[in-house]
Automatic annotation (TrEMBL):
Lineage: Bacteria, Bacillati, Bacillota, Bacilli, Bacillales
Name the record gives this protein: LysR family transcriptional regulator
InterPro entries: LysR_HTH_N, LysR_subst-bd, WH-like_DNA-bd_sf, WH_DNA-bd_sf
Protein family membership: Belongs to the LysR transcriptional regulatory family.
Source organism superkingdom: Bacteria
The entry's keywords: DNA-binding, Transcription, Transcription regulation
Amino acid sequence: MNLHALRLFHTIASTGNVTRASELLNISQPAITAQIKKFEKELSIPLLKPSGRGIALTDAGEKMALLAKRLFAVEQQIDQFCHEYRNGANGHIRLAATYLPAQFLIPAWIAKFKQQYEQVEMTITTTNSSDALKQLLQMEVDLAVYGGRAEEYPDTIQTEELFRDELWFVVAPNHKYANQQVSLGEMMKEPFVMREEGSSTRERLLALCRTYNVSKPRITLQFNGLHEAIMAVIAGYGANFVSSLVVREYVQRGELCRVYVQGVRLQNTIAICTRKNEPLSAATANLVRIIRQSGADADLRKSHPGNE
């Protein structure tokens, strides 16, 4: 079917006369009339009929006009979708996040993003460090927000560091080491409540023991989530090695206490991870921009605490 001729017919049907259609389309009336007659011949269907000094739609023309109106309305929707997709106002973002950013950072970031880009669909998977990078490498997600060490990233991963936080040893307030300074060897004699294998923080603790040539921690209780592990320590069982971002408020409220392990001061990196040499969709790029801005705002508040 000649879509150009159909568009001419649609304009005539919408305006009610050839003269107005000619003005809108900037095509001469004889040219429009000739193309419509050719179109009717191709279809073997009469679309227009004389009506006084003007024209009117035939019965077939009325039905064709309705179908054409639907078709070109869908065309406008497609144009609008493409425009929004190019500008990131539409699309689907798949995000993997490790437990720390998933629980303490991403909810605020996503809320801010959705206020600006409500139509963008999002699928967010919370998992451990190993699986987050695996999903990214296997093209299952578009980006990952990761908490761990920079040297853990594969060469095919592009990383952008957002900020760093300290890793703390924490215990319940009635623990014998609460607010005390101890050696790493003494600390490793205590029972630990930790996340599952594949957790970046757990691997950091094991690497710490190898570095200082001390016995591995006694991980006597294991959970697949941060909250459960922290609650067990607050309840009075064992110690935990965890991001300060997770437990800072618990320590400030006196529900947990730090243990100061001599010679140990480790940091955790929070980073955005994407695949190298692969452009982001507009929607994903918009999310990354908002995450960056949120990180910059947080740094500004730290530099000017009176603004909080």
